[in-house]
Amino acid sequence: MGLLLKIFIPLLGLALAFYFYPAPENFSEEMLRGKRVIVTGASSGIGEQMAYHLARMEAHLLLTARTEAKLQKVVEQCLKLGAASARYVSGSMEDTAFPEVVVKEAENTWGGLDMLILNHIGYSRFNYFNGDVGHVRKLLEINFLSYVAMTVSALPMLKESGGSIVVISSMAGKIGSPFTAPYSATKFALDGFFSSLRHEFNIDKVNVSITVCVLGYINTENAMRAVSHAIRNTPAPKEECALEIIKSGVLRQRELHYPPWSVGSLVLLRDIAPNFLDSLVRSNYNVENIR
Ligand code: NAP
User: Fold this and answer.
1) Which of 120, 168, 224, 262 to mutate to test the pocket of ligand 1 (most atoms within 8 A of CB)?
2) CATH (one of 3.90.550.10, 3.40.50.720, 1.20.1420.30, 3.40.50.2300) for 29-289
3) Does the pLDDT value for residue 137 go beyond 80?
4) Per-residue pLDDT tens for 53-78?
5) Whole-angstrom Cα distance, residue 88 to residue 102?
6) 7, 81, 85, 268: least surrounded by Cβ within 10 Å?
7) Distance (Å, whole) CA 26 – CA 90
């Protein structure tokens, strides 16, 4: 028993250290210079911040979201920051034809694509599930099916460039949490679909990386407006989050956990102590503030 503990505990320590601190690979901003990148949901929040980082790194940018006036401003700012080029296409991902329109725009403009960053989400109430199946269906279209459709359209170009797909997901796509049932369903769907696709790429030797980004609470305006009254956590900064996403994509990591400690430890607890995790999750909410 003593010998077992002597061997088991250091091994567990090593496994945890490896889990939380994977070997750092070298990231340099030059890796993005001249790369052709699509960012969806780029008119605000994390998507907007990713556009600014990529602009500073001198990438070519194609941005998309619904609100044209906001996209225009983001594009102007990207050009000031040094983007190799920047343009936008506005439209809603609820429209099933729109994902292909965006990818076609990239093909017509650049004749290829290096990175597809799928980040947009449709609006969903932060509250008890009210039985609205139509809303779940609509959210699946925006948050999940459009991601699949963009991937299908972009894949020939990504195969040619040996490019990357970056999928923005959430803690709510790894562990169940209250008041987000439709949103959470769409994020679990992303994890299932893209983790399965990654296997197939590997088996088939398709040189396209898939990075699933599992994010905790981030201080974007929309997220703070929706949940700050109900969540006790302090949100992490959107600028740093955006940079970590870009790094994980270009380094072709399978998953990003951001912020690393809080997301990493909750995902680990999910597998070893699910009941404890459930009570921990519930204790993080001011339930009396949910109407
Ligand atoms: P955000 O600020 O609300 O940005 C959402 C983006 O999606 C906007 O550009 C919005 O622009 C666009 N959008 C909304 N509806 C759309 C539609 N129907 N068709 C096309 N585009 C649409 O969100 P965020 O907080 O930055 O979140 C970005 C990503 O991080 C999301 O995938 C989210 O799930 C994930 N995440 C965020 C947090 C957080 O705490 N912030 C936590 C975990 C995961 P328009 O309104 O102009 O269309």
Assistant:
1) 120
2) 3.40.50.720
3) yes
4) 999 999 999 999 999 999 999 999 99
5) 9
6) 7
7) 35
